[in-house]
Structures are given as structure tokens and as C-alpha cells.
Amino acid sequence: KFIMRLQQFTGPIIAKGVEDTAFYVYNRLLSLNEVGSNPSNFGCSIENFHAFMFTRQANWPLSMNATSTHDTKRGEDCRARINVLSEIPSEFSAHVEKWSSINSKKKKDLGAKLVPSKNEEYYIYQTLMGAFPFEKIELEDFKNRLKLHMTKALREAKTNSSWLSPNLPYEEAVNRFITELLDSSSENTFIQDFLPFQKRINFCGFLNSLSQTLIKIASPGVPDFYQGTELWDLSLVDPDNRRPVNFAKRPSFLEQVQNLDSSKLQGLLDDFEDGKVKIYAINKALETRHKNRDLFQNGAYVSLEVKGPFSNNVIAFCRKTEASCAVIVVPRLMAKLTNMERLPLGDVWGDTFVCLPLGVSKIWREIFTNQSVVSKKLGGDGGFYVGDLLHAFPLALLMQGESKT
């Protein structure tokens, strides 16, 4: 009885102590401060990724693959943006120092301290990187959302305010700081420096998001889509992630992309900010999973070796049964491989090569481009050059033995 009673309290205590306090104070990289996550696990090697998937397939093949829920601290695409900062830490650090200097006059002196604190200011910059809206028309609403979010963050952190003893002057000073940060006038040198850098992070973040989406659908487990995440999800912690969803827009976009000719893919990528490229990837991958349910539900997980100059920038694996096989290839760590002028397609990848397991077909169909692909030889290995797979779309999902229809 005592143990049962104790266990009723340990979960909530940990949640309040870690997720609802420490995760608002320890701000090294906010995308790691997620429910069920551990901020000390900073990054993951490809080998560890595959090892995790092997274990998942062996022990929990029907677990939920969730990237956003009602309880996540940040939307999946917000986190995907913030993750990019880990690829260019020195560059981000230089920007933060510059911004802190520019914005020092925007802080309010409350006697014993300047508001916001350095830690809170750093939190705000990362939040802006992850959640900054695509469209200017959304900026005013975003300001209000960010202020509400920071009020909650301050009270959860319990350092300078709290739910039991709200420090209203302090919270108001932080809100005023945000208002001045996002002032669009030409005198605001911060926003002039911030926007080009954020745009670059945004570009790499959308590539991260696409890779995350395909991994979620094709890896061991059951993919889950929280309401609204069919398009970009840049929401913050609740109640922000429980805002009304435009359910009319999503079926409209889906109808537009369902029978999209592969020659139109460049248009989706050029206009990635509207989110159609994400719903296109989701639709194609889920449709393939539905048609090959046994393969994706029960098929073995097989890691694929990647060779060549950018082998560390590719995750490749296959799902395999005796009757069928699917190959998944996604890019990662894009910040230093590409830039906003060029997508990671075609000859960007040089001689980077994905090796296939023995005994599989030579003829494949790539789902997103609907093109036939024939495996090649590199030394003794059969497989594909990454540039051939990612020549028109930055993801590849190949089904064995299918020719173009």
C-alpha cells in the first residue's frame, strides 16, 4: 500500500521538478528540454541511432512515434529549427553576443538587477529562432503569443517570478523587452541583423523537419500526428499548442498535392514556407506504409552503410521481409553542407554512396519522384549514389522491384 501510494506522487514530483522547473532554467539548447528527454544527451551518432532502432524493433515495435503532442514544450518544427544551432555553435554564440550588446539598452533596471537576466535573454533568442513566423502578417499575433509564453516560462522557472508569487513588474519588463526586440522600424538594428540569420536557420530547419517526418513514418513504431502538424508546427508550450487548427486548409492542400506531377516538385521546395511540401511527404509516405503494412509493421530494421565524403550527413536504413524491402535515405546536419541558395540535391553529394544489403532487387521505384532507380556497383557493393536518389527531392523512399507507373 505504501509503495503504491508513493508511486502516485513520484511521477508528478519529477514532472514539476524537472520538466516544469529545471527545463525552464537550464537553457543550453532548448530543443533538448522536452518531456521525456534528457538535456545531457547532446546529439546522437548514426551508430547510436541505429542501435536505438534495433532495440525498438525488437522490444517495442508498436510504440507510438510521436513528434508533437498536447504536452510537448515546443512544436516539432520549432525544435527542428533550434537543432540547427547545435551545428553552428560558434556562429550562434557570436550573434548572441552581438545581439546582447545591441539590446542592452532595451533592458529595464529594477534596482538589484537588469531585466531580463542573461539566461532569460538567451532563452528568448532561441525561442525566436524556433518559433518566428513565416509571414509578416503573423508577427503581431506572435508577439502576444511570445509574451504569454515568457510569462509562463518565468513562473515555471521560479527564479524571478512564480505561480504562487507572481512578480508582475518583472514580467512586465520582460514583455516590454520583447516588444522592443520585435519592433520592425529601421532604428531596431537587432531585427535587421536577426532576420537574415533566422532565415538561414529556417531553411535548414525545414530540411530537418522533412527528414524527421520520414523517419517517424518508416522506422519501427506507429507514426502519430498531433492536430495541425500536417503543416509546419512552430507552436510553443501549452496553451499555445492547443490553439484552434485551420482544418479547412489541410484537406485543400492535400487535394492539391495528392496527384502532383513530379515535375512540379521544385515548386513545392521553392515555396516550402506554405507547408505543402510537408503534407506531400506525409501523404506519399503514409500511402506507401498503408500499401505495405506488414513490411513496415513487422519487417526487420537493417542499417545501411554509407560511404563517401558526406557519409556523416546521411541516415540510411531499410525495412525488410522475405517478400519485400523498402530503403529510406534522409539528409542530416545541413547547415554546413548547403545554404539558402542551394538545396542539398544532386551533385552536392559528390560520390557519397548508400550500400544495399545482399539479395535485394536491382530495380526500385522512388516514391516521392515516382522514378525508376537501378542500383549500381561501387567496388563490391551494390547500392545508390546519394546524388542520384536526392536529385529532385531531399528525401528518398524506395520500394523494391517496382518500375515507374
Describe the structure.
The chain is of the alpha+beta class. Helix content is 43%, strand content 13%. It is built from 13 helices and 14 strands. It has helices at residues 2-19, 46-59, 76-84, 89-102, 118-131, 139-157, 168-181, 189-218, 249-258, 265-270, 276-291, 293-298, 386-389, and strands at 64-66, 108-109, 114-115, 222-224, 300-303, 306-307, 314-320, 325-331, 353-355, 363-366, 371-374, 376-378, 381-385, 396-400. The chain has a six-stranded antiparallel beta sheet with strand order 5-7-8-14-10-11. It has a four-stranded antiparallel beta sheet with strand order 6-9-13-12. A two-stranded parallel sheet has the order 1-4. Strand 7 (314-320) and strand 8 (325-331) form a beta hairpin. The protein is globular. The termini are far apart.
